[in-house]
Amino acid sequence: MSPDFVLLGFGPDGWGLALLRAGLLTVAVSVAAFICGIILGTFLAWARVGRSRLLRVVAEVYSVVLRGVPDILVIYLFYFGGRQVVTVIGTTLGFAGPFDISGFVAGMLAIGLISGAYQGEVLRGAYQALPKGTLEAGLVVGMSRWTLFRRVIAPQAMVTAIPGLGNQWQSVIKESALVSVTGLVEIMRQVTVAAGSTQEHFLFYGAGAVLYLVITTISGQVFMLIERRSLRGHPSGARR
Amino acid sequence: MTNSFTIEVLEKLLVGLPLTLNLSFFSLLGGGCLALLLNLMRVTKIGNAIGSAFVFLFRGSPLLVQIFMIYYGLASFGFIRHSFLWPFFREPYWCGLLALILNDAAYTSEILRGGLRAVPKGAVEAARVSGMSWPTVFRRVVLPLAFRQAMPAYSSEVISMIKATALVSTVTLMEVTGIARALVSETWRAVEIFLCAAAIYLVLSLIVSRTFTWLEHRLSPWQFKVSR
Fold first, then answer.
1. Which end of chain B is more exposed for a tag (fewer CB within 10 A), N or C?
2. Which of B201, B196, B200 is closest to B5 using CA atoms?
């Protein structure tokens, strides 16, 4: 049996365009989830280094729970559970059903919440590696807390956090494959559909794997460039 | 959420626990052996190329794709359907387990590589000088040191493998997540059921992480004495 590569092309029988579109959707949902995750992670890191004992415990419990539960369960919970919650809210407000929640939003939120737990740890580590003198210096010259965060904490912490965030980005891309269970037509869903309709399972799942490899490889290179750029001005290679 | 319903759901979900544990155990065992083999292969140049290609492929693509590729993909090849391997590739259990083993091997081999790198050259030289054969050096010096070094990273790999077993529910295996999905499609009470399933995984991963913390304290006590 020889795989029919015309099926992967852009011709009338080819799935090329559909796969490309699915690839873009995978990148889109991953970027959205990653941004959710980094915002949530920042707040979690803040809570964990802050003075409030309650917030610290809440943040710790959050990261333990989200790191101990399978990602696919979180996505199921958001998609099916989200629908249940939306239905309850909708009926109490007097709207007529049926209610549904978009796969994109459910997937983005679910992956963002998982990724946030991990990114929080990365960012907390980065904050704790800051030289304390620079924070004190910032306070002494009269910076407000926001200015201090924007001009002293964030730029320095980012340098330490970039490799860890890069790893997180890679796993966000791979987790986005799970969003296919919600019916969102990203790579995984598209190759399943294509494999089902052409009966070329190995060819299409292989193509899916290659697409993911292309995305992870390219973004790995991008992160390497960012890392190199963030290190400009530092003595070569020797970081702290 | 009524209490009796929760207990009923938990009872039904726990039926899937043996399969979840079985898959976690054997994927870690198989993955660990394969990872050791991969690291031994890396001594030669060709072996190194094969090893790093393997790691690149299995770490760069999602596990779900790998499971589907093995379960649905391999079945579309006639020569596999007609070979002695077919009884294995027909079963979702073996396909799921194979995918988990290969995936785990890729991650574990990198963790182990880090551990092996951290073995001091002097320790190996001392062992050689005192007349140990290479297998003995490996068994009594290199591996214990490497394993201790790799422990913290390996504990999170164990937890992520337990979580990864949830994915084989997509190829009809009825472990905890598979049962949870079936229950949801019967009762439509998604929130309660999935939360129960999540609680089971959470307890498992807490047990694993506690065990590893205890092991680390046992194996490298000097690292923790300072804070006591």
1. C
2. B196
